[in-house]
Amino acid sequence: MNKRTLSLANLPRKREAGVAAIELALLLPVLIVFLLFPIFISKVLWHYTVAQKAAQDAARYLSTVPRSEMMSRDLAAEAGDLAIDIAGREIAELAPDLEIIGPKAFCDAESCGDLIAGRVPATVRVRLAFTMADPTGLIDFGWYGLEITANHTMRYAGN
């Protein structure tokens, strides 16, 4: 073979040099978005799962408060406050600066401290809500962030 044949065989390779770098530059932003989206969704689901578990644990505590305490308005209110404190401590594991928005502990359909004296509830319910912000700043949830709400209702065990 002569030199001319060898140089013509190498000619297409020289024209394709750098194509992979250009393809990577074009596709890298798309790949990053496709990788960040599942990570973000998993973070939202993780926050929701922690909130739901906190509401469940608080409702479980509230459902096992002794009957004698639930018959007293003051003690029932204290039990409701303690249930909210239990949920708040569990949510604080996500981020210490998260603020729970209007946490409520309900005995039947009213606040646990508003029960008629001498009456025990049929069900107890704990409601929690907090806002989750995107720390990367890639997704805009508006001024207040993404609100995550968790409710859990259980039968009162003292019945």
UniProtKB/TrEMBL annotation:
Q: Where are the transmembrane segments?
A: 21-41
User: Could you name the domain of life of the organism this protein comes from?
Assistant: Bacteria
Q: Please provide the record's keywords in A-Z order.
A: Membrane, Transmembrane, Transmembrane helix
Q: Which InterPro entries match?
A: TadE-like_dom (IPR012495)
Q: TadE-like domain: from which residue to which, for each copy?
A: 18-60
Query: Which Pfam families does this UniProt record tie to the protein?
Result: TadE (PF07811)
Question: Membrane as a keyword?
Answer: yes
Q: What is this protein called?
A: TadE-like protein
Q: Which organism is it from?
A: Massilia yuzhufengensis
